[in-house]
Amino acid sequence: MFRKILTLTTLAVTLTLALPAQQGRGMMMGGMGGMKLPDTITSDANPVTPAKINLGRMLFYDARLSKNQDVSCNSCHSLTNYGVDGKPVSSGDKGQLGGRNSPTVYNAAGHFVQFWDGRAANVEEQAKGPILNPVEMAMPSEAAVVATIKKIPGYQAAFREAFPGVAEPISYDNIARAIGAFERKLTTPSRWDRFMGGDQTAITSEEMAGHHQFMMAGCMSCHNGPYIGGQTFQKLGAKKSWPVATDTGRMGVTGNTSDRLMFKVPSLRNVEKTGPYFHTGKVATLDEAVRLMGEYQLDRKLDDKQIAQIVAWLKTLTGEIPADYIRQPALPQ
Ligand code: HEC
Ligand code: HEC
Fold this sequence. Notes:
2 domains; two-stranded antiparallel sheet
């Protein structure tokens, strides 16, 4: 029934009405097509080229970028597992546990900033963090990372190809640029994009009803745009104090008390597959995550049926893993 009455045009109108003016305008720019996931998340500062991607892919899988040569980006962001490790918090160097849940690397390049607290501006800047983080890959210095890579002849050729005409192509910045370029094509279009593209058969009426609930409840005021999130910081516990909150979020970066408990609104793409949820990783199921959002972000008690419908819609955001693109390459020797 829903599918019949909700043509793309009426859906677009509903979307606009359900939103505060500013977000509504942003979303409507470029029409519904503007909400579709891009194939490549481009960057003027770091143009994506095939050679950079090939190099970035190798680096992403290479545990030699870690102190004990046993942790790679893929250890915590398993590309065959929707870019996550499925644990509440990850274990890195010597099995040490980090303080936050690993978000997925799929579609992350499109977020307005990186990390739960936004402390890196983009994926290139982000990539420099974990390699030196003492509980993650634990390399002692940028120079040590560069020296390790320089000792591997296969990498010398790969860096020359990726950064042609550069006198010293192997640098910490270029490691980050190559990884960033690889991540810029880690996009996962889903049935929802097919629907946005005009294929009305791509989703069921139950899923459509879930989308309607999502909008009517007000979730869209924070989770919007092509990534259904990833565009703003918002307070965790916007309407009601979050039960246990030890991590101060964005305040840890800016020092401003007004940023206490402000976190980046996560993208909900692939959320079916990226649990456990929230920056703590303490919530195991998507149903519970949705219920908590209703209660604490919107002061709304969602009933079981509403939750089930919203979850059904969220599952339409589960995309296809680009199997060829992410295939683990032979690592340079
Ligand atoms: C030991 C586990 C671990 C390793 C290894 C690791 N990460 Fe992460 N990654 C995390 C955690 C935990 C976070 C969230 C930390 C935070 O927000 O403070 C994160 C955040 C990110 C983000 C931000 C995503 C978002 O939605 O904000 C990206 C992108 C990312 N990592 C890419 C990488 C890359 C590239 C590498 C390799 C150079 C890497 N990670 C290595 C655990 C890991
Ligand atoms: C006021 C802004 C706001 C509203 C409204 C909101 N959210 Fe969120 N949402 C957030 C923030 C911020 C987070 C990250 C919280 C954290 O972990 O620190 C989040 C996290 C989530 C997560 C967990 C994602 C993950 O990867 O861990 C889900 C699922 C979610 N929201 C769904 C919803 C649904 C469904 C609604 C409507 C019922 C909703 N949200 C309403 C801001 C909001």
